[in-house]
Amino acid sequence: MTSPTRVLVLNSGSSSVKYQLLDMRDSSRLAVGLVERIGEQTSRLRHTCLDSGDSREAVGPIADHEAALKAVAEELTRDGLGLDSPELAAIGHRVVHGGMFFTEPTVIDDAVLAEIERLIPVAPLHNPANLTGIRTARALRPDLPQVAVFDTAFHTTMPESAARYAISPKIADRYRIRRYGFHGTSHAYVSRATARLLGKTPEDVNVIVLHLGNGASASAVRGGRCVDTSMGLTPLEGLVMGTRSGDLDPAVIFHLARVGGMSMDEIDTLLNKRSGLFGLCGDNDMREIRRRIDEGDEEAQLAFDIYIHRLKKYIGAYCAVLGRVDAVAFTAGVGENAAPVREAAVAGLEGLGLTVDPELNAARSDEPRLISPAAARVAVAVVPTDEELEIATQTYALVGSGSTPAGNNS
Questions:
Q1: What is the pTM of this model?
Q2: Which DSSP letter does residue 83 get?
Q3: What is the pLDDT along the chain (410 residues), one digit of tens a residue?
Q4: Does 357 qualify as catalytic in the annotation?
Q5: What are the φ/ψ torsions at residue 368 (nearest 5 degrees)?
Q6: Contact criterion met (CB below 8 Å) for 165 and 158
Q7: Minimal CA–CA distance to 26: which of 53, 52, 51?
Q8: Dist CA 83 CA 21 (whole Å)
Q9: What CA–CA distances, in Å, run from 246 to 204, 276, 306, 351?
């Protein structure tokens, strides 16, 4: 009997579950879907079987994550791809925060669950939902290996000089305060894919990865290892994002509390949900912002300019951190689709070897591609991210190797 080769990838959010079933013999997708608005009367499940091309959608109350995953299992069973299939090798879970304990994908047991739970204070919006998905999946298939793939793991290679904040180490260690970074599966995938695009191995390439979606982050990757990243203790630090402020003088928080009379919860909501592009101009969709700019909207133009200014600062900083840069790679929703963002981000950086070819930049494609002139000193690339494939690949590599590494307690 041949070994099972399928991996189910689950990404459990606070009110949603995204999923993909992949066959790791050729990394092909067998089924994809999304359950959203969990806990509401208008819950929606959208499911597509890639083999048959059959798509289904159902609207109606789905009470909780357990009900959501049972509904997913039923849809997969209808396509002959159920959770009871002997071809299913493992379930891979996206977990946002692994702290410094988890530095690689990890087979989940009770001790791993307990540690993920201990990290809730530094990821209160994400880890609880991730845990719910894991516990439900384990209850449905207790005999099946379940693997946690952590957003933070790729960034644990940062040197202490990049990861530490300039506060008392005793206080920092007591409260686990350091730069952890996020979007790690995307940065890992894109940095390796960029090396392939250049015809080189990851060990031979220095890449700046710009993951630009509603959440946005940058990373400096030297020889396949992250040496710096823009997000910090939480996903709030760094670039201007859809609704998050990014970098901010910490004293702004004190000022809003003392002078503005705002509570900590109100400030948290302001900086995470009502700032960034949305806070600046009332829109967090780059397509709508560009439409408004084309119509002469000065508020939208200022929001775009602030967004680009911050992005350029990080590109320049990471050129300094890396010393030699072989490529800058744009990825995620904005990075892959917004040609004006890419053009503006490198405009004026010719002294750093960065430029784009207008025609190549404007051309649309779902494939990894170079958008810099052939003679450019630094390659500028657009590389579609594939976090689900990265999670499935790491999960299958771990299960197939027969090893079950726990976290690094350093």
A1: 0.90
A2: T
A3: 578 999 999 988 777 889 999 999 999 999 999 998 888 889 999 999 998 889 999 999 999 888 998 899 999 999 999 888 899 999 999 999 998 889 999 999 999 999 999 988 877 778 888 898 899 899 989 999 999 999 999 999 999 999 999 999 999 999 989 999 999 999 999 999 999 999 999 999 999 999 999 999 999 999 999 999 999 998 999 999 999 999 999 999 999 999 999 999 999 999 999 999 999 999 999 999 999 999 999 999 999 999 999 999 999 999 999 999 999 999 999 999 999 999 999 999 999 999 999 999 999 999 999 999 999 999 999 999 999 999 999 999 998 744 444 444 33
A4: no
A5: -60, 140
A6: no
A7: 51
A8: 10
A9: 31, 7, 11, 27
From 26, 51, 109, 151, the catalytic residue: 151
Distance of alpha carbon 179 from alpha carbon 320, whole angstroms: 19
67 near 103, Cβ under 8 Å? no
| Residue whose token pair is 């379940």 | 146
- To 10 degrees, what angle do helices 65-78 and 127-140 make? 50
Token digits for 315?
């590109």
